[in-house]
Amino acid sequence: MPKQKLVLIMISCEKAAHICNKTQYREATFFEVLKLRFHLFICKTCSKATEQNNKLTTLCHKAKLHSLSSQEKVKMKEQLKKQA
Amino acid sequence: MTQHTLQPNLWVDNYADYLFNFAVSRVSDTEVAKDLVSETFLAGLKSAKNYKGDAAERTWLIAILKRKVIDHYRKSNSKKGKAEVRMNYGASSDADGDWLEEQVADPFSTLENSPIENKELGLAIQDCISKLPKKQAQVFTMKTIKGISTEDICNELGINPSNLWVMIHRARTALIGCLNKNWF
Q1: Residue B4, C-beta contacts closer than 8 angstroms, at least 6 positions apart
Q2: DSSP annotation string for B13-64
Q3: In chain B, at which residue ranges do the beta strands (DSSP E only) sit?
Q4: Interior angle at CA A36, CA A60 and CA A48, nearest 5
Q5: Are A65 and B21 in contact (CB under 8 A)?
Q6: ipTM
Q7: Are A39 and A11 in contact (CB under 8 A)?
Q8: In terms of C-beta density within 10 A (0-12 exposed, 13-18 middle, 19 or more buried), how is residue B129 classed?
Q9: Within a 13 Å sphere around the CA of B28, how many CA atoms are in the beta-carbon half?
Q10: Contact B153, B44 (CB under 8 A)
Q11: Residue A8: CA count within 13 A, CB half-sphere
């Protein structure tokens, strides 16, 4: 039944956005990526959103952001408290 | 102009990451940067009574951090011989060549700009992250910057994966909007 097979690959925009976010962290499965690709092929809005999302990921990589771990922050807080 | 007040007990939560990125981009050593940030907080606490309240808290802390960075370089340069500027021509100093011509900057090169741009980009992103709701910012930094897996974050924060993805989605949408406004 070809119609049922088509239903398998058709996804909503919300679902597409979810998969798109997952792909930013390389956590989407192969079939999910396939579904997303198909959705992007037919949905212009999602294509644009995906493009922006990908750009954010590359920017974050390029900026080489650093952040302190929570333990280090706790340590700093204690130091501050000691002084106060 | 609005008057600002200092809230030292919120400093670490609100500004530690921002200051840390600022410091790392200047001293390029995470350990040194960490020390500088905590020194900054302590110095801020010590001179809190001199805070006039015309600048925002973060601006004031950044100003202190800048001094700390300068002090750091002064200290490391005061060790003998380090302050000396060394100029060497290539690998072997007695090589023939068009010395001057080879030293001239390439006007078409954009390579020099990219590290500077990346520094600013990092601060711009950090700025946008600090504008997010606290929980979203936390999830986003854990996932994107620290690269912790979905499972671990869920365990640590006590949320389920779909909850996490919703927060990630909102954070990303807000960040895209913020960066579009401030960066491009």
Answers
A1: B53, B54, B55, B56, B57
A2: HHHHHHHHHHHHHHH--HHHHHHHHHHHHHHHHHTGGG--SSS-HHHHHHHH
A3: none
A4: 55
A5: yes
A6: 0.77
A7: yes
A8: buried
A9: 3
A10: no
A11: 7
Closest CB to A60 among B21, B125, B168: B125
Residue in A with minimal Cα distance to B8:
A80
Per-residue pLDDT tens digits for B43-72: 888 887 777 777 788 888 888 888 888 888
Which residue, among B14, B110, B3, has the nearest Cα to B61 in the 3D structure? B14
Tell me the three state secondary structure of residue B112: coil
Q: What angle do CA B106, B111, B117 make, to 5 degrees?
A: 130
> A53 and B165: CB-CB below 8 Å?
no
**Per-residue pLDDT reduced to its tens digit, A35-81:** 999 999 999 999 998 998 888 888 888 777 777 676 777 777 777 77
Query: Positive or negative CA dihedral for A37, A39, A41, A45?
Result: negative
* Contact indicator for A11, A43 with CB cutoff of 8 Å: no
Q: Which two tokens stand for residue B77?
A: 């340069």
Q: How far is Cα A20 from Cα A23, in angstroms, rounded to an integer?
A: 5
| Whole-number Cα distances in Å, B91 to B18, B46, B87, B103 | 39, 49, 11, 14
d(CA B30, CA B20): 8
User: Is the model's pTM score more than 0.90?
Assistant: no
Chain A residues with CB under 8 Å of B180 CB are 52
B34 interaction partners in chain A (CB closer than 8 Å) = 68, 72
